[in-house]
Amino acid sequence: MTIYWMLLLAWGAGLMAFLGGTIAYLEGSANTVTKREFVHGITAFGGGILMAAVAFALVPEGMKELNAWQLALLFALGGVSFAIVDAWLAKHGGNVAQFMAMLLDFLPEAISLGALFAVSPNTAILLAVFIAAQNLPEGFNAYRELRFAQLSSKIALAGLFGVSLFGPVAALMGYWWLRDAPEITAMIMSFAAGGILYLVFQDIAPQARMRRHWTPSLGAVFGFIVGMLSKQLLG
Question: Topologically, how does it sit relative to the membrane (predicted)?
């Protein structure tokens, strides 16, 4: 397989976030209880997928390549860094936790995609499918969040499309520079894992809960299942 297929895979996986945002833009039903349950369920689903990414994609790489102190320090640094960013955004009237978590998740995985493509293209295709499955609900949630932050539809969708363009760039970085530097890739992934875990518990999980409704939170279970099965297939 050529490097152009790798770039296409990375971009296609990123475009799923844009597709998710487009679906959120086109979805125009009345704000009924059923719709609120659905939206809360999608939020929980995205949170479950992010937790699966931490558990099965990001942290295992760090545990394999880093010693205990490096892993703990980078994980903590990721959490603290994004706590500071989150606090700054809240102080200035913004909240883009879903968007930040999606970016934190997508970039290191796209780097891994490039590094993996150099060694095992078939496995890289499975990883691209996993990333695409994550990005669709995350894009849906991120679009709604950006709109809630008073950004226009055009700017929100442009932001999600811009994220997709980072995919090929990150994949190229992994393919050219990091395929023989697994420790650096593991450091990036461990930092991202700490940031994602903070964002899930601080901002995303609380948005998934809906008082007197119990089904939306099951979305987190199904999201985690998607990540778990993807890990099994990649393994």
Answer: Multi-pass membrane protein
Collect all residues with Cβ–Cβ distance below 8 Å to 35 and sequence separation of at least 6.
Answer: 29
Residues in CB range of 179: below 8 A, 6 or more apart = 114, 115, 118, 119
Distance in angstroms (rounded) separating the CA atoms of residues 52 and 59: 10
Q: Which among 88-92, 136-140, 159-163, 207-211 has the top mean pLDDT? A: 159-163
User: Which pTM was predicted?
Assistant: 0.76
Q: In this structure, what token pair is assigned to residue 136?
A: 């669709």
User: Would you state the structure tokens that stand for residue 3, as one six-digit string?
Assistant: 């490097």
**φ/ψ of residue 213, rounded to 5:** -135, 130
Domains of the chain: total: 1
d(CA 164, CA 10): 8
Residue 116's domain comprises 3-234
Positive or negative CA dihedral for 101, 105, 111, 114? negative
The amino acid at residue 55 is A
Please give the Cα distance from 228 to 220 (Å, whole number).
Answer: 12
pLDDT digits (tens, 9 = 90+) for 159-169: 999 999 999 99
